[in-house]
Design a protein that fits this description.
3 domains, about 400 residues, DNA polymerase, domain 1, alpha+beta, 14 helices
């Protein structure tokens, strides 16, 4: 049955190797047309593929036609999608993952020939990888690498380059248990009392009492804060990315949020504003690129406080206060943990912290919820349990 179909419907021929080859001019992702070849062991198999391509043409849908290497596609994804839609720190993190791990193991594979077997082998190889310090990759980082690949392949589907995401067809690597090490209530009180003598008292109080991320708090400007109502709008973050200080949008759309702070933080901000004016050197100010002129937390030269110095300052504060060493980000965890233990809902904490989904909040603070559930069960025993139970 080999032969030529009517004009516009493509052709089917039998090759010397015994397979059948169908050829059709198809639409591509950029709107142009391209001659595409598909193959089958039988005439009917090749014809089915020919008919499918013609049906795609009829619907105006580009046919799957990408034979580019995964590494080349990832370069496009990073530059044209991630860099355009996400913040600088997110782009930098993805770029490192792609360069060090995904390209190393899968970069030469054709985008449209990836299989579930490739995915399973990739996960196994990641578990053998080492960091630049020679340590094994954590379960959490292995999953982050795999999720980066899965996200990139999802975009490839949207661009009509592949028909399925094989990374979604295998069991994703386990993330492992997320460890949160917040201060307890006594430690939090000692911390807030001790930082009152520090020149960045308002900054530390914002971290532990409002749950902001380090870069979000450093990126606050006076125009973001209403000292009369306590309203605070999170519009930007500042981070050091590859040696450069970068002001950019918050981590996710939900991170761009409005929250309220109480009288303790407001009072600290008022004192900070007065002290900053007294400490500030006369112009010209040493502003970082993209830095708002009314930034709150600045050095005496007017430059944003160095994010890396925050870690050192916190370590010194904790040592002087005789509080166990904790990370800057754990002050945020302390805020969320204490609120949940005091009866705040997951939804309320999610909105305060700016998490992308309530699932993120639940995963991070599940241990707190378990403790809360036990407390509720004990409360019910006290409220309505029959008096003779347990006698």
């Amino acid at each position: 049955m080999a032969g030529r179909a009517p004009n516009g419907l493509g052709t089917i021929i039998k090759r010397k190797d015994g397979r059948y080859q169908a050829a059709v001019h198809v639409l591509t992702a950029d709107g142009s047309t391209k001659r595409k070849y598909v193959y089958g062991k039988t005439w009917d198999e090749a014809n089915d593929k020919r008919v499918e391509m013609l049906e795609n043409n009829r619907k105006g849908t580009p046919s799957i036609s990408s034979g580019m290497k995964l590494g080349d596609y990832l370069d496009h994804w990073l530059t044209d999608i991630v860099k355009a839609e996400r913040g600088p720190s997110t782009y930098s993190g993805y770029e490192i993952v792609v360069r060090r791990y995904i390209k190393k193991h899968l970069g030469t594979k054709r985008l449209n020939s990836l299989t579930t077997s490739h995915m399973r082998t990739f996960i196994r190889e990641l578990r053998k990888e080492k960091t630049v310090l020679g340590k094994s990759l954590s379960d959490r980082y292995v999953q982050n690498i795999f999720e980066t690949l899965r996200s990139a392949l999802t975009y490839a589907i949207q661009e009509d380059l592949i028909g399925r995401n094989v990374a979604k067809m295998v069991q994703a690597p386990s993330r492992g248990e997320f460890e949160v090490e917040p201060l307890d209530e006594d430690g939090a009180r000692r911390f807030t009392s001790h930082v009152l003598n520090h020149w960045l008292r308002a900054y530390w109080l914002i971290l532990i009492m409002a749950g902001l991320r380090k870069g979000e708090a450093l990126g606050l400007a006076w125009s973001d804060v209403n000292l009369a109502t306590g309203a605070v709008t999170i519009r930007r973050t500042v981070q050091r990315v590859r040696g450069q200080l970068v002001f950019g949008p918050p981590k996710t759309p939900r991170s761009r949020r409005k929250l309220y702070v109480g009288r303790v933080i407001i009072a600290a901000l008022l004192v900070h504003r007065t002290e900053t004016a007294d400490r500030l050197v006369a112009p010209p100010l040493n502003l970082a690129p993209g830095q708002p002129e009314d930034l709150i937390f600045i050095t005496k030269t007017g430059r944003v406080v160095e994010p890396r110095n925050i870690n050192t300052m916190l370590a010194r504060l904790l040592k002087r206060a005789r509080i166990p060493l904790t990370r800057v980000h754990d002050l945020r965890h302390t805020c969320a943990t204490l609120l949940l233990m005091d009866g705040a809902t997951l939804q309320e904490v999610m909105e305060l912290l700016g998490h992308s989904t309530i699932g993120v909040t639940s995963n991070v603070y599940g241990h707190v919820l378990d403790a809360t559930k036990k407390r509720i069960a004990h409360q019910m025993d006290q409220i309505i349990a029959p008096t003779d139970v347990g006698q």
